[in-house]
Amino acid sequence: MKKVGKEMIEFKNVSKTYPNGVKGLRNINLKIENGEFVVVVGLSGAGKSTLLRSINRLAEISEGEILIDGKSITHAKGAALRRIRRDIGMIFQSFNLVKRSTVLRNVLSGRVGYHSTLRTVFGLFPKEDENLAFDALERVNILDKAYTRADQLSGGQQQRVSIARALAQEAKIILADEPVASLDPLTTKQVMDDLRRINKELGITTIVNLHHVDLAKEYATRIIGMRAGEVVFDGPVAWATDETFSEIYGRPIHKDELLGAAVL
Amino acid sequence: MIQAQKKGVPQPPSKIKGYLTAILVLLLLWGSSVNTESSLSEFIIGFPNMLDLLTQMIPPNWSYFDKITGAMLETIRMAVIGTTFGAIISIPVALFSASNIVQNSWIFYPARFILNLIRTVPDLLLASIFVAIFGLGALPGILALTVFSIGLIAKLTYESIESIDPGPLEAMISVGANKIQLIVFGIIPQIQAHFISYVLYTFEINVRAAAVLGLVGAGGIGLFYNKTLGFLEYDKASSIIVYTLVVVLIIDYISTKLREKLL
């Protein structure tokens, strides 16, 4: 099932300039292969989020092209763009669930790209979709909350629901933008473990933005370091030494900036 | 005192702005009363007339309740139908007015302009216009209330659409939802409780408005109010006022309770 070695995401000379002239991304060239678990690290404002959001075009780029599974998302429009986005699940720092809807409806909302507008408007999802949603919830150990309203859940539970949404979407790629930044250390571990398990078991290409160096080392198979919109490091996790991180962050990493080895 | 003597404590801002504002408000008040030729002495002179009217109104003619119950029910029905139609039409209007849904300012500015225009026309004037077009009866009243409801519900709704959490919208875009799916899954769950609350609130206002629409011949209890005043039957007029007051209070109470439960 895993087709490791096939290019899933390709950045070709990608740059982004904001209207005020600030460079968000500078000439990025990257190839991310199927089944990789990539962690992007860097300071706030280094362009991690822009890089991630440019993959599903939540952020537009100014130059270059991004290919998803061989197709250009940069030049896709309308239905074709939505068709590519359907294959890319996204997990956000603030979970981005509809708080007043049930967990199940939130997970099913990941299926809308597969059905006609009319069908989804009336909430007529086929039985298979519901099973898919239940499976996804089971995979992140939150099946018992299926009919609970999303705002009744804790932060960690909400983040697992949003992972389930990406799973129900049957995404080939999962993008996680600071998925644990608003969670406590223990919940952080659970959520990161879920992401790793899904990456391993289902072979979903996963790209995660993280603040914490030790988390990056623990979970990544490959680390991309960003600084001022540029990729300053790209390689397997074994290559990333303390000096590497010092270079990415522009200064040595202090002990108290680590999340703490105790939980990991 | 000790704190004030410390170096680096900033000067409190000047109070002159507050005083000037107060003076300006007082000048406006005084100017308005002079220009409308209303004075306290006039009020005192007119006071006995008011007492006179009140004594004629008390006691209300309780037996008149029977005759006006039909009209009262018609008033409520007008408010129900007007609010419902207004609410239905408000949904697309509100969506087109919200800048986070239609990013095109050539659409949302005109839509908002129309809403503002609707709200500047008083409901009684709307009713008179519709009476002129459709003739006497409840229909022009219902139409006036419908238009009036759109102005209110669509305005309040588009404002709450604009203040929703944009996160779920981003999530819906990222799963590949189209515009309609985005609205159904990302926006409606976030605003439906507010929307229902606005509809109930508008209904409260519409019951009160419907009670006076009869003054211009647009149906409802107002017709009887006009008639009894014309014949100087103040006891009947006061019974209408009491009846209206009771009905409006009951509807307000229920509606307020419902709205508290919703939010």
From TrEMBL, chain B:
SUPFAM superfamilies on file: MetI-like
Cell location: Cell membrane
UniProt entry tagged with the keyword Coiled coil: no
Record keywords: Cell membrane, Membrane, Transmembrane, Transmembrane helix, Transport
Major subcellular location class: membrane
Membrane topology type: Multi-pass membrane protein
GO MF annotations in UniProt: ABC-type phosphonate transporter activity
Keyword Membrane: yes
UniProt xrefs under InterPro entries: MetI-like, MetI-like_sf, PhnE/PtxC
CDD domains: TM_PBP2
ABC transmembrane type-1 domain: residues covered: 72-255
Full protein name: Phosphonate ABC transporter, permease protein
Species assigned in the record: Neobacillus vireti LMG 21834
